[in-house]
Amino acid sequence: MKSFLLFCLSLYVVAAKHEIYDGYVVYEAYPKSIDEIELLNDVANELGLDIWSHANLDKPGEFFVSESQKLPFEDTMKSIGISYKVTVENIREMLELEDQKLAAAATSSRNSNTSRLSLDEIYTVNQVNHYLADIAGRFPRVTRLVNGGSSVEGRTIQYLEISTTGIQNTRKPVIVLQSLLHAREWVTLPPALYAIHKLVVDVTESDVLNNFDWIILPIVNPDGYAWSHSNARFWRKNRRSGLMIGNFCLGVDLNRNFNINWGTASSSNVCMDTFHGRGPNSEPETQVVVNVLNRFSGRVAMYIDLHSFGSMILYGWGNGTLAPNALSLNVGGVRMAQAIDAVKWPQKPNYRVGNIVAVLQYRASGGASDFAQANGIPFSYTYELPGLLGAGSNNINSFLVDPSFIRQAAVETWAGIVAGARHVWNVL
Ligand SMILES: [Zn+2]
Predict the structure, then answer these.
(1) From the centroid of its chain, how far is CA 342?
(2) E strands, 33-138, where?
(3) CA distance linking residue 150 with residue 158, whole number of Å
(4) pLDDT lower than 50: segments of the chain
(5) Could you tell me the distance, in angstroms and rounded to a whole number, from the CA of residue 181 to the centre of ligand 1?
(6) Ligand 1 centroid distance, CA of 74 (Å)
(7) Spatial distance between the Cα atoms of 35 and 26, rounded to a whole number of angstroms
(8) Is the omega angle on the peptide bond into residue 309 within 30 degrees of 0, that is, cis?
(9) pLDDT tens digits, residue range 163-216?
(10) Rounded to whole angstroms, how far apart are CA atoms 398 and 88?
(11) What spacing in Å lies between the alpha carbon of 3 and ligand 1's midpoint?
């Protein structure tokens, strides 16, 4: 009887898990000019919408809209004359499908796979910490696990140093790779863990291991990431609370919090997904990244911040102006994109490379890769990994992960990182 009750309880928990997204839909909107794109972005910000994908002239904008926002959204679109349609009626079904597929893949992987890094599942915070500790324990000559600091809720933010010569050699260039600054972008985690695997366990590109020291920070935002597993799959920010008296919204968008043009193209509204925080570098998660860059000041040759989605490699500045070395940044970006495109799944789009504003037609301040670039790192990039394209009859991109793509995401992103590292080495 007791086990039956537990069984019923677990079914209830599973069924209730995505309740908060009841009534949410995904819209696509189709602006036809740069002016309409800007108008659409303005309107979306005014309505406080969660913009999943910014529109450009080649692709529609994608918006995640709650039940109460539907009518205002549709009325506004009609009044400004931009056509739109609903692409996902019931997001909860897609979330439940994602849960089922990931759980099934993880179970079969544990039964059959003897390698220690599973590329059939999305690790939780604890699994990642376990993996990092395991690597550091097994390969003490080339790795060291560092506690970079604590998150708002007190979780440890860890990164792995990888060096064949001891990390102290100040003449050796460093590459910094990070993921999960944005909590819901789950597909970015396996590539970061796979990079560790390819630099430590299964080394087939020994030049990039020997030529560089590596810093790999797989979960910059552990609180948000844990929350996206336990409570809200589409959570993006960290979990900073107490930001505004009488206001229950919480969380800071860490990729708007860095001390670079802070507050100029982000939201001052704590309820928005692009809320920039109380001040530049105010968040402990941001500070961990800042400290890493300071610690290796003058040595970091390339910085890659993994995000999803959209199949893009972007560089600064987030206000649309170009860094003095923009041409060189572009060449490096193109090399990486070509390497990824050469091994990508045919049904996925080719990567696009460019300045963030030129590619996306929207400005963003306080971004991590802009901060890195401003701090003298010559090759600083934001990757936007491919989204899950097509769920059932819906041909849309989303943050959801199909387990069949996890290994591919890891392998193709690694191809890009290797191409980038080799390019940087050749031009240093
Ligand atoms: Zn992101």
Answers:
(1) 22
(2) 50-53, 61-65, 83-88
(3) 9
(4) 114, 391-393
(5) 7
(6) 26
(7) 23
(8) yes
(9) 999 999 999 999 999 999 999 999 999 999 999 999 999 999 999 999 999 999
(10) 10
(11) 41
